[in-house]
Design goal:
221 residues; 6-stranded parallel β-sheet; alpha/beta; single chain
Length: 221
């Protein structure tokens, strides 16, 4: 028998969470919730949307679980705040781990995590609470991913890395083995991290510049 789930959010991340939980989990999505000031419609994905302020009365924690489906806005602070509020209300907060992910760490994964397809999570990795790991990443052995972080796609986290709380790691970034990344760091797309990083550090690779030659002038392509 499937467990009843309410998803917090009514945007693209919530739509994805609805898809994944509905097609690849033991949970049945019964409703969505948003803060009352953001309530624009009473339905989403064919399910009711209720104000978060009223959720405990309509969908009590004894009968429903909740999943916080928010992106990395304000360096994960929005997701963290709603996660902590929901925990304080007494809700169980399941994680979604794709059946198409390779998970070899004895499922040492916290709650409210969102781990999508084609990830490789090697042995002895520890993943905290409220962590998003998008599709197609490598999380190397003995690494630690702390609470509330967001890892985009095609990231290489080498062995023995520690990623601090509330970090953001962009697509195609590489973290060499045994580096320690402090909390609230932003590692931009394509960045290479070869040494430890202090709290609040930002790493941004330069974008590839457009050629002065237009595509209409190119030959042999």
């Amino acid at each position: 028998m499937k467990k009843s789930l309410v998803i917090f959010g009514a945007g693209k991340i919530a739509e994805l969470a609805h898809y994944y939980f509905s097609n690849d989990s033991q949970y049945d999505v019964k409703a969505f919730s948003v803060d009352g000031s953001f309530l624009k419609s009473n339905s989403f994905q064919g399910r009711p949307v209720v104000p978060f302020e009223d959720i405990i009365n309509i969908f009590p924690p004894d009968d429903y679980n909740i999943f916080i489906a928010i992106s990395y806005s304000r360096l994960n602070e929005d997701r963290k705040e709603k996660y902590l509020q929901s925990k304080n209300l007494g809700y169980q907060m399941p994680s979604y781990v794709s059946s198409k992910a390779t998970v070899l760490n004895d499922h040492k994964i916290g709650d409210n995590c969102f781990i999508l397809e084609d990830n490789t999570i090697q042995p002895f990795v520890s993943i905290g609470n409220n962590v998003t790991i998008w599709s197609g990443n490598h999380i190397g052995h003995h690494s630690i991913i702390r609470d509330h972080s967001f890892i985009s796609s095609h990231v290489v986290v080498s062995g023995g890395v520690t990623l601090g709380e509330s970090c953001f790691v962009g697509v195609n970034a590489t973290l060499r083995d045994h580096v320690s990344i402090g909390p609230k760091c932003v590692i931009g797309a394509g960045a290479r991290i070869l040494k430890d990083a202090n709290e609040g550090s930002v790493f941004m690779e330069k974008a590839t510049e457009a050629s002065k030659v237009p595509s209409s002038k190119l030959r042999n392509i």
